[in-house]
Every structure is written in C-alpha cells, then in structure tokens.
Amino acid sequence: MRCRVGTATPDARRLSLRLDPAPPSAITQIGTDGGLLTEPIRHDHLELAPAQRFDVLVDFSHYAPGTGVTLINDFGTTAMGQVMRFVVGDGRSQNFKVPDRLSTIPVLRTADAIVTRKFDFRAGDVNDHDGWLISQAPFSPDSIAAHIRLDTTEIWQLNADFHHPVHIHLSPFQVLARGSGGPGPFDAGWKDTIDLRPGEQAKILIHFDGYPGKYVFHCHNLEHEDMAMMANLVVT
Ligand SMILES: [Cu+2]
C-alpha cells in the first residue's frame, strides 16, 4: 500500500508555525538551511517541511511580563497543533537591534547555467509494488541520474505530484521560480531542501562546488525516500 504521506503523518510532517498572541514585531527570519540570509525577513508564520531549517529571532520585550505565548502549528491536529509554551518574564529587555545587513550571498545567475535538467517526483511502481520514483526510476546504487562537472552552474526543474521536500547533497542552491512566479516567501537564501507542493513545478539554480564524488538527492519524506525516491549524481 502506498502511503500518501502529507501534512499529518508523523514521519513526513509539514509545519506552519506562528505565535499566539502574535508578537508585535513579527517573527524575524535571519537564517535558513545554508546559513545567514543577506537581510532579515519578517513573517507572521513559517512553513517548513522535513529537513528544512530556519533561524529566527522573536522580540518578547513587547509582551507584558507574565504573558503566556504559544507556538502553534496550524498544520497540526489535536495536541500536535500546540508545539511549545513560553511565559514572558519580567527581566529587563536588552537594547538590541537586528542588523539590516546580515551577510553577503553571491546571486547565482541563469545566464551562467550550462544545462537545465528536469526531474519528476511521482508515485509509481517499484518491483511490482507501489513506490515513489524520480523521473520514473526507482533508486539503484549503480545508476547515475546526473553527470556534472565540478565548478559549473545548472538549472534543475523539479516537478511534483504530491508534497515532496527535495533534498540535494553536496551543494546548496537558490530557488529561481515556483510555477510562473518567483521564489516563495520561505525560499530565501542558500537552501538544501525545497518544499514542493502537489502539482508544483519549481526551478532552482545550483553551483556545484566542493568535492568530486558520488552524491544523492532524494525526497526527505521518510517513507518516500525509503520507497525508492532517491537518485545519484556524480561530480567529476
Ligand atoms: Cu516525497
């Protein structure tokens, strides 16, 4: 039986996090999968999928001492909808301001890409059983889905039939587009995992640096990667 994992299954849980009551200064994102952003981004909530990471700052000094603040997961049901509870103390607040500029990130350019590769993340048969495939192929240790030259830039177009948090080893990437639009509100900075939604098509830019070798990319839903939704890339 194919497991249609999505928002509720424990090993493939997506999160939509917010604070209740909401902080007057919003939730300030300063980092993501691959480190600091170039500048802080203010959110009223954060959506994330398995393997994704966000570094955030919350200024609790705007709450009255004694206020109870709950971290809510709007994708959760029953107890899974409540993640964490804070009680604001009466300590003196620090005089701290988030810098307008956090880091410098080189912007990968479409014009530098030497190839566009397309990968489909879809359900399919694996040895006569229901499974999950990348471009119609189940994972095999010996087959190579992409031969890549070190120190080159590529565009990868990723198509999904369902929720697939696609995780690529070795080199971080930048999200170029989702559908006909630009990157989503949670796509900024160096990513190593993109949260693809059902029926979505996304484009990412990857500069393959680091070390030559054989690496994998895969869906990070546990059941999907265990059911063959993984492939090899080789960098030479
Ligand atoms: Cu998946």
Describe the 3D structure.
2% of the residues lie in helices and 46% in strands. It contains 1 helix and 17 strands. The protein has one helix at 222-226, and strands spanning 15-20, 27-32, 35-43, 46-48, 55-57, 68-73, 82-87, 113-126, 129-134, 144-148, 152-160, 164-168, 173-178, 193-196, 201-208, 213-219, 230-235. Strand 8 and strand 9 form a beta hairpin. The model has no long low-confidence stretch (mean pLDDT 93). Bound molecules: copper (II) ion (CU). The site of copper (II) ion has 6 residues, from loops.
How do the helices and strands line up, and which of them pair or pack?
Blueprint: E1 15-20, E2 27-32, E3 35-43, E4 46-48, E5 55-57, E6 68-73, E7 82-87, E8 113-126, E9 129-134, E10 144-148, E11 152-160, E12 164-168, E13 173-178, E14 193-196, E15 201-208, E16 213-219, H1 222-226, E17 230-235
How would you summarize this macromolecular structure in one to three sentences?
It is built from one helix and 17 strands. The radius of gyration is 20 Å and the shape is globular.
Offer a few descriptive terms.
236 residues; mainly beta; Immunoglobulin-like; five-stranded mixed beta sheet; globular; binds copper (II) ion
Spatial strand order of the main sheet: 9-8-11-15-13
Overall shape: it is: globular
Helix content: under 10%
The distinct bound ligands, ions and cofactors come out as:
copper (II) ion
Question: What is the CATH level 1 assignment of the largest domain?
Answer: Mainly Beta
Number of helices: 1
